[in-house]
Design goal:
HIT family, subunit A; binds adenosine monophosphate; single chain; five-stranded antiparallel sheet; 5 strands
């Protein structure tokens, strides 16, 4: 599998505004933010889509969600509220084939998937 753009960020081959990193997870600002807070929380393991995740990834993906909630607290949006989104494949609007959770907030969000 070729390195995804997010793996290249993990390897510091391309720059990103990194917010958080540990041995399993990295988080950085989205390059094209849709809200005042728009951070991508990404497992370092390059899994193309959530369709490709399996039982052995359960702990890792749980850790990614918990990291999103910790970053929401860090950003001070946890009480006001926020959204965590995973897009999958074409109709889900996925453009980078390395699982990532969008942490979006900092304003009142609508609820239309269009
Ligand atoms: P998705 O469409 O769900 O696959 O989300 C991919 C996201 O990655 C989009 O919101 C892009 O703006 C974002 N993105 C693409 N390239 C970069 C990059 N080099 N640094 C940060 N965010 C990126």
């Amino acid at each position: 599998m070729n390195d995804s753009i997010f793996t290249k960020i993990i390897k510091r081959e391309i720059p990103a505004d990194i917010i958080y990193e540990d041995s399993d997870v990295i988080a950085f600002n989205d390059i094209s933010p849709k809200a005042p807070v728009h951070i991508l929380v990404v497992p370092k393991k390059q899994i193309p889509t959530i369709n490709d995740a399996n039982d052995e990834d359960a702990f890792l993906l749980g850790k990614v969600i918990l990291t999103a909630s910790k970053i929401a607290k860090m950003k001070g949006i946890d009480e006001r509220g926020y959204r965590v989104i995973v897009n999958c494949n074409q109709e889900g609007g996925q453009s980078v084939y390395h699982i990532h959770f969008h942490l979006i907030g900092g304003k009142q969000l609508g609820w239309s998937p269009d």
